[in-house]
Amino acid sequence: MKYMLLIYLEEDALDESERQACYVESTQLAHDLHDQGKYLSANPLHPTVSATSVRVREGKRLVTDGPFAETREQLGGYFLVDAADLDEAIAIAARIPMARRGTVEVRPVIDISGLPGR
Amino acid sequence: MSESQADRTTSACTRETVESLYRTESRRVLATLIRLLGDLDHAEEALHEAFRAALEQWPRDGLPANPRAWLVSTGRFKAIDGIRRNARFDALDDVAEQVDALADERSALDDESVEDDRLRLIFTCCHPALAAEAQVAMTLREVCGLTTEEIARAFLTSAPTLAQRIVRAKNKIRTARIPYAVPERPELPQRLDSVLRVIYLVFNEGYSASGGTSLTRHDLSAEAIRLARLLAQLLPEAEVLGLLALMLLHESRRAARATPQGDVILLTEQDRSLWDRAQIGEGIALVERALQAQSPGPYTVQAAIAAVHARATSADATDWGRIVALYDLLLRLEPSPVVELNRAVAVAMHSGPEAGLALVEAILARGELTGYHLAHATRADLYRRLGRREEATTAYRQALALTQQEPERRFLQRRLDELGGG
């Protein structure tokens, strides 16, 4: 079963060297998960100053600067993993370095048929 | 089954037997069916089908040699039957797979795996990924077998609200795939905390309340003790024994802690001849076992405090020095201003009201517990014992303004009246 692990944190929580250390640790985690056949994908995201929100209403495209919601903690990256059950997904989430600073939200993924690549 | 046994099984007797078996076995059968069927709702349905079949067949054919095994396999068979019946709605391959999975599952009716199933059910219902109030509702519903109406009444909520809470929890168990498993060793202490918290919450809901529904609420305490006994038998970790001891020692004072009119009687003023000696004996023995662990946990330490009280013939004869020392230990394990307040009360008993008062004032000066009526009631009591009537009156009034609970209010008002400060 697939789980999306969404990483939320305050955007200025890390200085540059901490960010680099986080990337190194996350990359190692991705490799560990890959070796166990549990890794699907993972990426950090640029800060919300670079975010653009898009809505289409009555056929009209509304494009605005900024994230969907202005909150203190923002989505900063994700892991998409294949885990046996919620306990395993929670155990992986707890290994994400940012779980020690921010919050990792664990969401089960709906498997729909007809998507490319399977 | 022998002929003569079957002969002796009359219809009326067996109906009673089925009913009594339902009470003693239905939770075990359910727990095993959940494992075999992989789904709570299917398992509940299968459980009811199995008991319906038992009511039909046992009076006619006699009691099977192993009723529990009969109920589990009948329930499983009915579930497989149900899947086959719905087959035309599903892809045939899926059905074959489902039925194979169910039929394959042979493991498993020995006593050990059945007991493991009950433990799995407890851990699933108390999974921290479920909302706290859903954990309580699920545990009472699935592990204890209380009806939704009974739980709603005990928690003073409406049955529909509670039913919805349970439906949501079941959906989350299914959708997020919360496993039906006892956690692995590294996770066990934390997960056990969650189970113990649920049990203690159920107990306190039944213990601290007063008022019209006292009967059902008393049942909640008994249910919590029953759950802890079950857990202590399945997983005799020190903190499980500690919690069971703590609840037994509290429960032992039930008859002494209020007047027939429902007025609060403080521990120091209770008639100790009303304390339940059997519960005290069992509680103390459990504390002693739990204290043998390398590092006692917070429930064990609280139980040890309750045991010191239980051993004393009067408030004056209590070993307050030991109680203060146990509170010191508890504060290290679980720092909290409420524990500090309780420690201050013990210090006042051990070293005099002035020493206790200084500690209470220090807590309040930090801005903590200022809205907690018991902090002011404690301060008031200490002033009263020091003969400082004006300060005592003011503090009792502050406490009164902060509590809604009727028996507490009557108690505080009585103290105020005694001071002549009405």
Give a description of the structure:
The complex is a heterodimer of chains A (118) and B (422). With 118 residues, chain A is an alpha+beta fold. Chain A has helices at 16-35, 86-95; strands at 2-10, 39-44, 52-57, 60-65, 73-82, 103-108. In chain A, the strands form two sheets. Chain A has a four-stranded antiparallel sheet, with helices on one face. Chain B is mainly α and 422 residues long. Among the domains of chain B are: 3-108; 350-422, Serine Threonine Protein Phosphatase 5, Tetratricopeptide repeat. Chain B is built from 20 helices and no strands. Chain B has helices at residues 3-8, 11-37, 40-61, 67-85, 92-104, 111-125, 132-143, 148-154, 159-175, 188-207, 214-234, 238-251, 277-290, 298-311, 320-333, 337-351, 353-365, 373-385, 389-402, 406-418. Classes of the chains: A alpha+beta (118), B mainly alpha (422).
